[in-house]
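Quick one, T. Sequence first:
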Amino acid sequence: MSVLYLCEKPSQAADLAKVLGDPRRRESHFETARGLVTYAIGHLLELDEPGNHDPRMKGAWRLESLPFEPLAFRYVPKQSTRGQLSAIGKLLKSATTVVIATDAGREGEMIGREILDHRGFQEARSSDCEHSVS
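Structure tokens:
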């Protein structure tokens, strides 16, 4: 089983890597005694332009084209962070478990989930796992 910890920002990844033990800095991640730690740089994806959903929305918008309601929201990589998103994708290929270690709260969770969804990551599941709430 290979574990990948996904943090929201580089400083958070560095702190977590220290806690996990024996951190070794690489270009896009840290190798530790208990797995790899990588990071986003805030949001790595953004909503696709309306004109890419519907040709009527390209260029100047017209009142008769509104309301614009896409069937599904599509996300595309941000130009400025495309390299880090690609690096995370490569790390995900060898991961069987991903720990979303972003900031607690909606925004941090969303950053982690967006990346996993965009890369099509499906975590390995064990049929004998039990979850309980006390």
